[in-house]
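I am going through a labmate's work and have reached the protein record below. What it holds is a sequence and that sequence's fold in token form. Please read both lines and tell me whether the tokens look consistent with the sequence. Do not assume that whoever made the record got everything right. Thanks in advance; the entry in question is below.
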Amino acid sequence: MVSARDADPQKLVEKTAEALHKEVQMPEWARIVKTGANKQRPPEQKDWWYLRSASVLKQIYMDGPVGVEKLRSFYGGRKRRGHKPPHFRKASGKIIRTILIDLEKLGYVAKQGKNGRAITPQGQRLLDQVAKQVK
């Protein structure tokens, strides 16, 4: 049996984004927002919301129960500060929280008390089916 851990991560996220594109709707404000304090501009890809949603779902599958702060650290990066040395900045929490709420409504993710969110059997099934297609 093929699981999401066996598949190529990039192809897995792209195929999962295609599957989520039918179920998740990108908010209107997401077209103009930056993804973090370390970024200078909003994403240029039109479907970046669905790619991030699929990536968040994969991260929860791999690291399971994960909170918003850990995901913010995962998607963060180095902020360039001109002549001063760069510093690490976390990603936007609003984007991650909104994606997690959407995934909870679909039944792919569930809260685990104060431990964060964990993947449900339905979410695991989705990722495993996509991994089977990719592999």
Summary: The longest strand covers residues 84-89. Residues 48-63 form the longest helix (16 residues).
